[in-house]
Structure formats: structure tokens, C-alpha cells
Amino acid sequence: MIKSLLAVAAVSAFSAPVLAGPYVGFDTKTKFDGSDYDSTEFTASIGYSGKVGTTKYFVEGGPITTAEDGKSTETEYFLASGIGFPITDELGAKIKIKYESNDGKDNKYEVKTGLKYKF
Questions:
Q1: Residue 63 to residue 105: CA distance in whole angstroms
Q2: pTM of the prediction?
Q3: Domain encompassing residue 76
Q4: In the predicted model, is pLDDT for residue 64 greater than 90?
Q5: What is the total count of domains within the chain?
Q6: Residues 71, 73, 77, CA angle at the centre, nearest 5°?
């Protein structure tokens, strides 16, 4: 009986860290104005995500290279962090905060919030 309880405790203690860990990612976003090409944005990121209880979190950063039509490419850097958590079994909430450098101009900041309902 005691061995069974110790086994359950050990599995519980080590199961949460399995969900957390480092990651790398690459995203591409291409924009059009009507049918005219406007720009393409390439984002590379390295980050860490995990879970504490029912709350998921992440922190990531990396370069963002933008290639605008008829202009030279520009590379800036970003840092972002966010959390997501359940409100009910069907409804969840999330918030993300992002900082982006801006080539000597005012830095860019973004706060993004959202809700998701699961049927």
C-alpha cells in the first residue's frame, strides 16, 4: 500500500515538468493590399513554455525580418510572454504582452487578450 502511494506521488511530482520545456519556431506572414503584394514578415523564436496547475505560460524572443515591396529588408527583435487559463470547463482566457524594437524610433508594444469557447 505504501509503495503504491509512493509510486503515485513520484509520478505526480515528475509529470508536470514533462509538459514544460524549450522550443524553437518559425513563422511567415505575407500581406496583400487587395491583390497587390505588400510585405512578408519572417519571425524566428526561441522560447520556453510550461504549465503550473491549470495555467499555461510561455516566454519567447527572436528576430523579425520584414521585406516590404520595393524597399530593403529590416530586422528588429521581439520579446513576448503570455498566460492562458481555464475559466470554466468550456471557456478559457489568454493574455499576451509583446515588445518589439523599432530601429531607433519608438519601440512597439502590444497587448493581446482573448477568450475561447469549446463546444
A1: 17
A2: 0.73
A3: 19-117
A4: yes
A5: 1
A6: 140
